[in-house]
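Forum > Structural Biology > Help requests

Title: Can anyone predict the 3D structure of Aldehyde dehydrogenase?

Hi all, first post here. I have the sequence for Aldehyde dehydrogenase but no way to get a structure on my laptop. I'd be grateful if someone could post the structure tokens.
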Amino acid sequence: MANTLTPPLSLKPGTSWTDAWQRCLTVAPEAFRDDRVLNLWDTRWQADGRALAATSPIDGGPIAGPPRLDAATAQRAVRAALDQHRAWRHIPLAERRARVAATLDALTEHRELLALLLVHEIGKPWRLARADVDRAIDGVRWYVDGIEDMLDGRAPLDGPVSNIASWNYPMSVLVHAMLVQALAGNAVIAKAPTDGGLSCLTLACALAAREGIPATLVSGSGSELSASLVRAPEIGCVSFVGGRDTGARIATAVADLGKRHILEQEGLNTWGIWNFSDWDSLTAVIPKLFDYGKQRCTAYPRFVVQRSSFAEFLSAYLPAVRSVRVGHPLAVADPADPLPELDFGPLINAAKAKELTDQVAEAIDRGAVPLHRGSLTDAHLLPGQDTGAYVAPVTLLGPPPSSPLHHAEPFGPVDTIVLVDTEAELLAAMNASNGALVATLSTDDPETYERLSPQIRAFKVGRGKPRSRGDREELFGGFGASWRGAFVGGDLLVKAVTAGPARERLPGNFPDYQLNA
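Reply #1:
Sure, ran it for you. Structure tokens for Aldehyde dehydrogenase below:
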């Protein structure tokens, strides 16, 4: 009788970390050494800093770790960036456009290597890793095509833009911002995220530096580099993407100094269900909400559900969440197979996975009801691989107020559900985190949506559909504690990093005013 057993999965040939690293050494030998990446400052790749050990979240294997600078070297790097800035701001716009466009061509040429590095370094499935690279390239091309009108009557800042961003979108958020900032006439500095994305950013910056883009890329701890990257008088603007605790400290520093700033912070994005009946549409969207394990600033980890509709909600939700595909992003059954279509792979590291698992266990101990607990038993994994960073989807009803899952974004594949009986309770539950980036309200009645949506404290509110960050024409910011400083999106990203008319009031959340448009 024929053997019907499914063969074990194996790593797709040509996708190992060793393969990716060797390709980096070939493509950008100036930025990569045999055993480490280099820092980029003062127009040169420098073999300084203390390189830390690092592991890939997908299998626990060793990868290149950040070469962390000390405070004194970081300060020298910032001073050198100011010199670059003073020269670059006088480069004609046509030449800046040509250099940024050439950088985009180089990024396009090495798109698949950049994506493969993202898979290894931050655990993104192949589809999402390529999308991250493509969004960066396509987004910056939109600015290249329309930059003349955006810069009309504006000038570069007095100093370089300092970028401190989280690890989850190295290309479509960080590299995208850096190239637009440079296109607008600024030198740019980036701190490599400690948790992942280092080699991808290094390769991207190497391709940009070859085209003459005035980029600085350094690694180090926030406490060690903060004096240089946030408080230094040379810095013209601080752009930050990350958590509220770090963001609050940066906000205090830049407010005291009167420095231009863009601080995008987390919030608990919520999805409300009120007088709703189109359950098939909800079932269709649930798996998409688990993209990248909800490790996104615009993820939806909280559902606020009308109690009388809870049974119908569960009937729509549970089959969808059970269909979510989890596993190793590079594992295949046959070497000729394409890379798997997964919703998410690992979390960023084993420590985050343990923290989230512990929070779930604690919430259940204090009264939350587990409605769904996925398992890694049938996940798409290599035989015997390290699974320390993997967490299967979990859904909890009624997280207790004492749990971080009640009021904060979990940044992992954990959904929480809160039941409400009145519109006032719905709004209170949807506004639990004092501001969010996005929210959605599903209701059959357009008038109900028009009446309730302005009372939801999220910057973007969708009707029955998820909202996204957006990089082009659409304004992007946040309400409450989810955002401080200038808003971005479309021409506002350019305005945020340039100087306009005297006494200009940029849209944003500032200590002395708030302006949405």
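The longest strand covers residues 414-420. The longest helix spans residues 126-150.
Shout if anything looks off.
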